[in-house]
Amino acid sequence: ISEVITNMAISYPIHFVANYTIIPAYATEIYNAGYDFESFTIINLQLGLWFTVISFVRLYLLRRLYAHYGPRETALSLMKRGIRRIRNA
């Protein structure tokens, strides 16, 4: 359950930032596509691919983190561990 809660907690900020970086890059193309179904479909597939890759990488890294530290760790304990590591470096 800790992994699921952590995944939900970090996915929103990651995708929030992704929305503000990826979608503006396609704004002109979306505007120019107008009602052209083929162009609009290609743009939507590209956007979907971006968000799929982001989700895949996020989930892969999170699973590796939990596999390394164990399922009993919580998001809070992992953050505390990271802060301690940064302070001691």
UniProtKB/TrEMBL annotation:
The keyword Transmembrane applies. It holds the Pfam family DUF7220. Keywords: Membrane, Transmembrane, Transmembrane helix. The chain crosses the membrane at residues 42-62. This is ABC transmembrane type-1 domain-containing protein. It comes from marine sediment metagenome.
